[in-house]
Design a protein that fits this description.
The protein has a single domain (about 5-270), classed as Divalent-metal-dependent TIM barrel enzymes (TIM Barrel), CATH 3.20.20.150. Helix 5 links the parallel strand 5 and strand 6 (about 185-190). It has about 270 residues and is of the alpha/beta class. The longest helix is centred in the middle third of the chain and has 20 residues, at about 125-145. It contains eight helices and eight strands. The protein has an eight-stranded parallel barrel with strand order 1-2-3-4-5-6-7-8, surrounded by four helices.
Length: about 270
């Protein structure tokens, strides 16, 4: 069963053979009209010059930035977000304003809030309370520009507590209990599969709560077709259930990035 959803390129994991500011144009040259990014700076509040450079790189390439992560700490060192991390809320809250500011300039309206690992010496309940408080703040900030905050189950990080869609949805329910509606599930079909979530059940029961989708195949986290996940069928099921948003290509290419898109129909790469 084919689907007609559109793909965007995650330029934080693809085209890494190029400097960051050259990647939006590389995505455009590969036929894609949209990209997404993890937080592209090493600090939560980048300089105005660095922000301008990123904004111009996106605009000059003629692509749409559809998704941006909030600052998540030192990802290569194992950090997975600041949302539930006591002692770093001020960094996160400053970053929320910086990220929403970038989104306002380039038309990005989806902001991924990585929850954060469990911290030694802090009660999980305390971290969860802080997370809800920070997600409510992020949602209010995103609402100013018509944006949505995303919450994502993640694999490969044992201390990260959101492993299944139900884990994330339970947090989203708590946040929405504070009167904010613009918080949704980021369903990364790779992470869910690796964590042994029942992806078909997630789609059947929660497609209406999915605000963004990402894909990679398993094993290996490479492009679709290199593993054994039924991604095309799952995307078709999502679409049939009403999902009409973007599908982010968030995989490690098994060869040069540009050679890893052969499976993507050209029509699925454009914004129109």
């Amino acid at each position: 069963m084919a689907h007609s959803l559109r793909y965007d390129v995650n330029c934080s994991i693809l085209f890494t053979e190029l400097p960051l500011l050259e990647r939006p144009d590389a995505a455009k040259q590969a036929g894609f009209g949209a990209i997404e990014l993890w937080w592209p700076f090493t600090q939560p509040v980048p300089s105005e010059r660095d922000v301008d450079a990123l904004v111009h790189a996106v605009q000059d390439a003629g692509v749409t930035l559809v998704g941006l992560n909030f600052f998540a700490g030192d990802m290569p060192a194992g950090d997975r977000g600041l949302v539930s991390w006591p002692g770093r809320s001020s960094e996160l809250r400053d970053n929320i304003e910086a990220a929403i500011g970038i989104g306002e300039r380039v038309g990005c309206r989806e902001f991924n809030a990585l929850y954060g690992n469990r911290v030694d010496g802090v009660a999980p309940e305390e971290q969860d309370e802080l997370a809800v408080e920070n997600l409510v703040l992020a949602a209010h900030a995103a609402a100013r520009i018509g944006g949505t905050v995303l919450l994502e189950p993640v694999s490969g990080a044992p201390a990260y507590p959101l492993k299944t869609a139900d884990d994330a949805l339970a947090v989203i329910d708590r946040v929405q209990g504070h009167g904010v509606a613009n918080v949704g599930l980021l369903a990364d079909l790779y992470h869910l599969a690796v964590n042994e979530d029942d992806v078909d059940t997630v789609i059947a029961e929660h497609a209406d709560r999915v605000a963004h989708v990402q894909i990679a195949d398993n094993p290996g986290r490479h492009e679709p077709g290199t593993g054994n996940l039924p991604l095309d069928q799952q995307l078709a099921d999502l679409e049939a259930a009403g999902y009409s948003g973007w599908v982010g290509l968030e995989y490690k290419p098994s060869s040069a990035s540009v050679d890893s898109f052969a499976w993507v129909e050209r029509a699925r790469r454009s914004v129109a």
